[in-house]
Amino acid sequence: MTVETRNITKLFGRQKALNDVSFQINKGELVGFLGPNGAGKSTMMKIITGYLPQDSGEVFINNQQISSDNLEIRKSIGYLPEQNPLYTDLYVKEFLEITAGFYKLKNKKQRVAEMVELTGLGDEQHKKIRALSKGYRQRVGLAQALIHDPSILILDEPTTGLDPNQLEEIRELIRQVGKEKTVILSSHIMQEVEAVCNRVIIIKKGEIVADGGIAEIKSGSIKRNQIIVSEFSSPVNRVQILSIAGAKNATRNGEIWEIESDNKQDIRPAIFQFAVSNGLTLLTLQEKQQNLENAFQELTQE
């Protein structure tokens, strides 16, 4: 199923939590939804689920407009909120059976057993939720979000409180689920997003500042011009470097030059031609990369 938001705006008093936000996510995409605290991530997720009404704009699930009273289309969504509200006086298995009952599943006991197996709750299913660690409570939350086999899965900070081993297990679960479903994942853990997602949407102060593939975001090409790392067999000066067609700026660190293009064009051919024309051998010629965390900071810092 596809998720499409069109010009979503949401106000809380005078504060604009979301400002004219539009994007489309297709089936099979596993999208990381990132932003600083207070950027509007959780608000957007609640609007997509129909839990929170927007002030203007529209949300479509498979071309059907979603609203609080459109229960049929809302059944196609599984949602794990950031706070993961659970009935802590219930036993794990009991809670999942009640959740299955909400969706009027015919194969309720079988589906609960499948979710217990899928989320690794076998040893915990007969315990009260209040007795579980935070990590296992997250697993219960994931199980309830998946129990009705939704086409769209919305996860707000799903790995909060998990230890490293649990993290990898849940990441693998999300990757497997993402092959058949549309998944929107919010997280502050950049390594998690980089390991799991194939696309990233970054939001700042209620507005989208980047939307693209992981490699595209990391390269910085969405915000900044291309930067090429170059090293030549003989010394060259900055004036010579800036004579390269398309070179806007250049900085030097030892014998390594970082050359910035002036309009996001690929200037590697021009650098190669510069070396040939000056009888130089290129020892290094590669586009500068950064990790997702650095790209996130560059896009969201004041």
Question: In a nutshell, what does this entry contain?
Answer:
With 302 residues, this protein is of the alpha/beta class.
Summary tags:
alpha/beta, 33% helix, Rossmann fold, six-stranded mixed β-sheet, 14 strands, Alpha-Beta Plaits, 2 domains, 28% strand, 302 residues, four-stranded antiparallel β-sheet, 11 helices
Structural overview:
This protein is 33% helix and 28% strand. It has 302 residues and is an alpha/beta fold. It has two domains: 3-219, Rossmann fold; 227-289, Alpha-Beta Plaits (2-Layer Sandwich), CATH 3.30.70.100. A hairpin with a 2-residue loop joins β1 and β2. The longest helix is centred in the middle third of the chain and has 15 residues, at 164-178. It is elongated.
What is the average of the pLDDT values?
88
The name of the CATH topology of the largest domain is: Rossmann fold
Question: Helices and strands, in N-to-C order?
Answer: EEEHEEHEHHHEHEHEEHEHEEHEH
Q: How much of the sequence is in beta strands?
A: 25-35%
Oligomer state of the chains in this structure: single chain
Anisotropy-based shape? elongated
The helical percent reads 25-40%
In terms of per-residue confidence, which ranges show pLDDT below 50 for 5 or more consecutive residues?
none
Instruction: Output the number of helix runs.
Output: 11
Number of domains: 2
The CATH architecture term of the largest domain is 3-Layer(aba) Sandwich
Please describe the biggest sheet, giving its number of strands, its sense, and whether it closes into a barrel: 6 strands, mixed
Instruction: Give the tally of β-strands.
Output: 14
Structural class: alpha/beta
> Mind telling me the CATH class of the largest domain?
Alpha Beta
Radius of gyration of CA atoms, rounded to a whole number: 24 Å
What is the topology, as strand order, of the major beta sheet?
A: 6-7-8-3-9-10
